[in-house]
Write a structure and sequence with these properties.
Protein-Tyrosine Phosphatase, Chain A; Rossmann fold; UDP-N-acetylmuramoyl-L-alanine:D-glutamate ligase; 6-stranded mixed beta sheet; 9-stranded mixed beta sheet; 22 strands; globular; 21% strand; 3 domains; alpha/beta
């Protein structure tokens, strides 16, 4: 681990299951700090990659690549976020850990332990929510960097937590925390904990909405009267949770992207702190959802000692994140906007509400409830082009609401046909905001957005492209 003592975890043993974006850095970091690590992944390619990386780093003697038949003697099991340890069914290795009383931890927990064990008093910021957490995490880090505060950002938003460097006492770790990561904490204490919003998501992993809310609320665990609990007020579950948070122990502040009356809010084209105008969101932060993200970022920075005027200037220089309402190109007056990160209806609602008229590309693997919550925004859609596994499910909802649509199947068909429709109807925007997961056709929302961008920028946009 960059800057951490090489004997920090000497004498400890860790089991790591899953060699993805979180697992591999966790293994190298733990072994680099003196721990013995046993690791496993079902993929032969990923196992070979770990073996080669361990050999290059001179850590082959402390890293064992082997399946688990027992967890006796291990201090903890580190699971890839995508591997279940409770619902819908515990992975056999997770069940083995639970039966043996071995804690199941996230890499964020181990980062916190490493920082404190190394003697650093650096502060920790945890940001979660169904939507907006990546933008807010990056925006907080941007503001702190502009204010010359030592900062490292990661977690659910790469890089992985255990790939982050050791910061000095005046440093700040800004971690995007998924519900999966929050379920696997033990002692991590966030000086600032922010929950932006709560809408149904990942219900298979949490049982129901109540379970999902409980997982998200773990971001506030271990807080004291010296800390800040920041919570969004633009959805009912968050408003209910705010009533509890106001009782402490942390100081509770509220944030909204639509309404006045909160500690921090965004409305009327500006950001407000206790009713006083303090900033504007900036060109890379369109829509009320981004007003909330920007207000939340300012609240975090303010609590950490950054002057509001400095934060306001940083908002204006923020360039935004890929796949989140990112303008790809404009062709013959038609703007192509990549919002591939919108993997549920609530996220797509935020994008749809930014445009009066648009051509919509949607589809993939639908979440619970499909796109029915978007019905109030259907009047903005001049035509929808549907792709992916659940295109016909989405089509039924659109048909019932009288929205014109075309079943395209793939982006290779949808992008040129969307462009033709936009030109024919003089519609200024083609928006990819799928409201669905991407794993039926892509490795993730990133690849889906990249494919959309490639097609939008193709020399001949009038002809459907061949599927790669």
């Amino acid at each position: 681990m960059n800057g951490f003592p090489p004997t920090l975890f000497a004498g400890q043993r860790f089991a790591v299951l899953g060699l993805g974006r979180n697992g591999l850095p966790a293994i190298m970091a733990l072994a680099g700090c003196g721990a013995h690590v046993q690791a496993w992944d079902d993929g032969a390619t990923t196992r070979q990659a770990l073996d080669e990386q361990a050999e290059r780093a001179g850590l082959s003697n402390t890293i064992t690549i082997a399946p688990f038949d027992t967890l006796a003697g291990f201090d903890a099991l580190v699971l890839s976020p995508g591997i279940a340890h409770i619902l819908p069914q515990p992975h056999p290795v997770a069940a083995m850990a639970i039966a043996a009383g071995i804690p199941v931890l996230s890499d964020a927990e181990l980062l916190y332990r490493a920082v404190r064990k190394a003697g650093s008093k650096a502060r920790f910021v945890g940001i979660t929510g169904t939507n907006g957490k990546s933008t807010t995490t990056t925006l907080v880090a941007h503001i702190l960097a502009e204010a010359h505060v030592p900062v490292a950002a990661g977690g659910n938003l790469g890089p992985a937590a255990l790939a982050l460097p050791l910061l000095p006492d005046n440093g700040v770790y800004v971690l995007e925390m998924s519900s999966y990561m929050l379920e696997r904490l033990d002692s991590l204490h966030f000086d600032v904990a922010c929950l932006l919003n709560l809408t149904p998501d990942h219900l298979d992993r949490h049982g129901d909405m109540a379970g999902y809310i409980r997982a998200k609320a773990h971001v506030f665990d271990h807080q004291t009267e010296h800390d800040l609990a920041l919570i969004g007020m633009d959805d009912e579950p968050s408003r209910i949770l705010a009533q509890t948070l106001r009782n402490g122990p942390a100081h509770c502040e509220t944030v909204s992207g639509t309404q006045a009356g909160c500690t921090w809010s965004g409305h009327d084209g500006a950001l407000w702190h206790d009713g006083i105008r303090c900033a504007t969101p900036g060109p890379a932060l369109p829509g009320s959802h981004n007003a909330q993200n920007a207000a939340a970022a300012m609240a975090v920075a303010h609590f950490l000692g950054v002057d509001d005027t400095r934060s306001a200037a940083a908002l204006l220089s923020f360039t935004g994140l890929p796949h989140r309402q990112k303008l790809i190109t404009t062709r013959e007056g038609v703007a192509f906007v990549d919002d591939s990160k919108a993997t549920n209806a609530d996220a797509s609602a935020r994008a749809l509400s930014c445009y009066d008229h648009l051509i919509w590309i949607a589809g993939g693997v639908a979440k619970a409830g499909g796109i029915e919550p978007l019905a109030p925004l259907f009047g903005r859609i001049r035509h929808a082009f549907l792709i992916g596994q659940d295109a016909e499910v989405l089509a039924q909802t659109l048909s019932a609401q009288g929205v014109a649509y075309t079943l395209c199947g793939t982006l290779e068909r949808a992008v040129p046909e969307s462009y033709a429709m936009a030109q024919a109807t003089q519609t200024p925007v083609v928006l990819l905001s799928p409201a669905c997961a991407s794993f039926d056709q892509f490795s993730g929302f990133e690849e889906r957005g990249q494919r959309f961008a490639m097609l939008a920028q193709a020399a001949d946009l009038t002809t459907p492209q061949d599927t790669p």
